[in-house]
């Protein structure tokens, strides 16, 4: 079993590289693929770059050239559900491409020729418990000062719909519009449903894990670089460690 790990933040890749052993690096198409052992398990980790095309290219490469059996994607996302706060985690269940619209040829969101308006992940109980055990012991990975700074106390873990599109969402109007179209939406980002489409087409199991970094509107801006470095990175590494062990 070889796990492909895709991160949407270079800093998350770096945090995994810090503990990756027997590393072999290959460069293809503006990306560096790091093969190695992470807690005695074979993995390949790569920064996807941003957006659906970038994520699709990375996923295809991992499947074809690196022969991974499974893909885990980690990254940050904007909250759509008003129940979610910074630091909460969404495990993708249904992955939508919210900017796909080929009406009148097909329904809104339907992926042409696949007859699907979303891709479903298969349940991954091991991943769910890896995520929950990370959040239950978060103080072991992130200092109290940092947790307080981002108002993270007891992060929630939810499973639900994730919306992907080639847009950074930062307005109340757009959030309301997306929720109206897809009421089950939990969060919005730019890659998950592209990874899902490629994995569906190649019949490879995949999981999408998103850490809420913002509220997808102009309220409560956070220090993004600091959040990535001191929070999101710790999540990615900690969750992967729990999953693999
Ligand atoms: N703004 C950040 C960069 C994040 S941009 C910075 O200044 O460093 C893009 C990444 O964030 C993508 O991986 C995307 O999936 C994710 N993302 C986080 N919040 C988002 C939002 N509100 N809308 C769309 N993508 C978001």
Task: Describe the structure using short key phrases.
single chain, alpha/beta, Rossmann fold, binds S-adenosyl-L-homocysteine
Q: Summed up, what is this model?
A:
This protein is α/β, with parallel strands linked by helices and 245 residues long. The chain is 34% helix and 29% strand. The model has no long low-confidence stretch (mean pLDDT 97).
Overall description:
By secondary structure, the protein is an alpha/beta fold. The chain has one domain: Rossmann fold. Helices cover 34% and strands 29% of the residues. The protein is built from 7 helices and 10 strands. It has a 5-stranded mixed beta barrel. Helix 5 (172-181) links the parallel strand 8 (157-164) and strand 9. The longest helix is centred in the last third of the chain and has 21 residues, at 224-244.
- Residue share in helices? 25-40%
What structural category arises from helix and sheet content? alpha/beta
Give me the strand/helix succession.
EHEEEHEEEHHEHEHEH
- Poorly predicted regions are none
| Mean pLDDT across residues | 97
Tell me the number of helical segments per DSSP (H or I, 4 or more residues long).
7
What is the CATH first-level class name?
Alpha Beta
Q: Could you name the CATH homologous superfamily? A: Nucleoside phosphorylase domain
As laid out across the biggest beta sheet, the strand order is 5-9-8-6-10
Q: What quaternary form is this?
A: single chain
| Termini separation | 14 Å
How many beta strands in the DSSP annotation? 10
Rg measurement, Å = 17 Å
CATH topology: Rossmann fold
Bound small molecules, deduplicated: S-adenosyl-L-homocysteine
Taken from the alpha-carbon principal axes, the silhouette is: globular
> What count of structural domains?
1
Largest sheet: 5 strands, mixed, barrel
């Amino acid at each position: 079993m070889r796990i492909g790990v895709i991160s949407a933040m270079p800093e998350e890749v770096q945090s995994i590289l810090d503990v990756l052993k027997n590393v072999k690096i290959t460069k293809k198409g503006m990306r560096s693929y790091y093969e190695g052992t992470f807690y005695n398990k074979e993995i390949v980790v790569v920064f996807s770059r941003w957006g659906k095309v970038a994520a699709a290219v990375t996923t295809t490469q991992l499947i074809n050239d690196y022969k991974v059996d499974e893909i885990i994607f980690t990254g940050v996302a904007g909250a759509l559900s008003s129940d979610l706060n910074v630091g909460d985690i969404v495990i993708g269940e249904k992955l939508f491409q919210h900017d796909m619209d080929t009406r009148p040829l097909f329904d809104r969101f339907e992926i042409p020729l696949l007859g699907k308006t979303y891709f479903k992940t298969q349940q991954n109980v091991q991943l769910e418990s890896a995520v929950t055990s990370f959040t239950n012991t978060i103080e072991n990975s992130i200092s109290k000062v940092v947790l307080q700074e981002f108002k993270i106390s007891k992060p929630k873990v939810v499973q639900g719909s994730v919306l992907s599109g080639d847009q950074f969402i930062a307005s109340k109007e757009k959030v309301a519009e997306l929720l109206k179209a897809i009421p089950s939406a939990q969060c919005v980002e730019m890659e998950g449903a592209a990874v899902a489409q490629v994995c569906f087409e190649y019949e490879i199991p995949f999981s999408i894990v998103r850490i809420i970094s913002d509220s997808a509107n102009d309220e409560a801006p956070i220090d993004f670089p600091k959040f990535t470095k001191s929070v999101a990175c710790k999540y990615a590494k900690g969750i992967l460690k729990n999953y693999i062990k």
